[in-house]
Design brief:
The chain has 225 residues and is of the alpha/beta class. It has a single domain, classed as 4-Layer Sandwich (Metallo-beta-lactamase, Chain A). Helices cover 22% and strands 29% of the residues. The protein is built from six helices and 13 strands. The termini are close together. The protein binds nickel (II) ion and manganese (II) ion (MN). Nickel (II) ion binds next to loops.
Amino acid sequence: MPTLTYLGHSAFLVQGSSGAVIIDPFLNDNPLATMKAGDVKADFVLLTHGHGDHLGDAVEIARNNNAVIVAAFELANYCASKGAQVHPMHIGGARKFSFGSLKLTIAHHGSSTPDGAYMGEPSGLLITMDGKTFYHAGDTGLFLDMKLIGEMNRIDVAALPIGDNFTMGIDDAVKATEFLNAGLYIPMHYKTFDVIDVNPGEFVEKAAARGARAQVLEINGSLEF
Ligand code: NI
Ligand code: MN
């Protein structure tokens, strides 16, 4: 059973029997995150897009751990130019890695680096480890193709942005639960900045009212799935 740990904002650590991956490690510059880049042990770093609150400390973590950054082609190449080992992929593509398998899905958002370089399309991540599937939606608005993602994958846990302003807000994230049919939903991308300071408990309640199970993971909180 893989272990999922929330590190704040959209950052998660997923540990399985064949390795650990860290997703969107925005740690050192996130005052709410208590795990910092130097503490991370991971074999792979998975990125949804290039914005600073997702790229975060990816290159430093990859270097410290001799880990590989996996991201969309443009972002992977950018990380390679900063000295990281990378594996480029793109939307719709899946691949088996030592930790399990990964497929990049669409996300409706932007993708550029903190220094303004264009990074192609953002993505979501479908990660399968030890036979369990975790869907990390990345930064995105609500989209109907989530229905296809839900139909074609048996999702055990899904992390959805709820903070509004830059991504889906609570009501759109609740609508997304109807499309994805996941066993459990974890809210993310809220509270870090004033403009996304929403109450995750409201998401849990509204999801429950539609028959979807959701749970707030506190920072450094974890669960097995
Ligand atoms: Ni973003
Ligand atoms: Mn973001």
